[in-house]
């Protein structure tokens, strides 16, 4: 056993020495496997990062929140849009019924949004601003990060209170700082409105369903005096599950309450949609699985080319060391030891190439993160996967050369030179 370990250790040192001496050959051998591992891990890193960013953006909307809307989120282009078109829009008065009757909910809010508004402050202005009107519990249902000031409270929810909360793009562009914006009066579509709160800078996201950086939020009753939500917006109700309840429980209770409000008979279909984030995230599984499969398919060919390159180099190595193999067999080295010697060298060669490929991917993530807000991460699982694939390719590519070396006759091998 000790003798075998010594032979293997000697073989490992010889393999390292071969890599150092034959630099050009080593470089050409590593190039194929490096490109292969780079391709497959780069694709996986990109798709995993994309999936993570999309899921985080969806989770920010609330995994425990149901959106009561006219249109469903699922269905695609084949959905019966003509049926949904005839559905009524959610109404503000329905919010009171939900708050009173849905006991499995912890909070509910009514909201609508409209884009492309003009915001003015003295001689400055910003165009293309998103406009949102919400009721007082909106901050309990959605993640609202206030940098300075406060959310709407008390009489500020009254239609006579012309107050607003603005996003980072607005307070940076019009005032320079969040603190400077507080208390100032802006004009929304010509209506004077006092700023009582400013939002923290969030940065762009993959989905930008709600762009809180480029938004002005006002109380609902004030907002409907600026925009007619029945004609120029898509109102919806947000309902958050209570900690002691489950989403299915609240969804069933919510459906029953809304059907009663809409006076639907038991045989009639729902004329509303109960949308939730989990249904959207479930659809992502198939999409990203297909993308990853495509990435594997592309990288497979690069790995095959790299594997043939490694196999070719190992055949050359066996040819060069034929006499040494004969001497080792003459002093008692078994076939399994010779086989393991060349397999170790092949695996080591591939792991080095794979490590270089992983380093290139890592440097790519650093560049990508410095140039955009899209977060790209090389995960530990992808690193382990890359090294595992490298070792597997090395084992497969090196097996036939190693097997042929182990079968050499000692006398014939010594006389080969």
Automatic annotation (TrEMBL):
Keywords: Cell membrane, Membrane, Transmembrane, Transmembrane helix. Its main location: membrane. Residues 296-408 form the ABC3 transporter permease C-terminal domain. It is found in: Cell membrane. The chain crosses the membrane at residues 27-46, 293-316, 337-363, 383-405. Residues 26-255 form the MacB-like periplasmic core domain. InterPro entries: ABC3_permease_C, MacB_PCD, Macrolide_Exporter_MacB. One of its GO terms (molecular function) is transmembrane transporter activity. One of its GO terms (cellular component) is plasma membrane. It is a multi-pass membrane protein. Belongs to the ABC-4 integral membrane protein family. PANTHER family: ABC TRANSPORTER PERMEASE YTRF, MEMBRANE COMPONENT OF TRANSPORTER-RELATED. This is FtsX-like permease family protein. It comes from Chitinophaga oryziterrae.
